[in-house]
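Morning run. Coffee first, then this:
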Amino acid sequence: TTTGTQMNLDVADLLSNSVIATAKRNNFPPIVVSVLDKQANMLVQKRMDGDVHVAFPDFSYAKAYTCVALDVSSREFRDKYTTQNDASKIAQLNSMMSISQGKMAAFPGGILLRNEENVVIGAVGEWRGG
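And here it is:
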């Protein structure tokens, strides 16, 4: 049993509020942030006021889902299969995204979350326009 921080609604809400506060502080265009637990259940999804494309919630969820599904950031997932420009690895990446029925995303913005004991507790995904 782990004794460190576990993902719950309070933690997810705190994380999503922090991401939005950072976006506001940096004058980013409106974002959507999704926080998932380690089983890829959505705990919180928030969008900033303003023009947010209808697809942004799906994109932010896909980034977070990728993290909990593969135990890596969405950037690491992309880089693992694309840095060598190997056609077979790129085909594998595309197949994995297809098999997941669009639940995974191979671009930066998904962060795997671990607690003090290095146990995966969930993930955050963010998408912004611009």
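The CA atoms of residues 40 and 65 lie 6 Å apart. Good start to the day.
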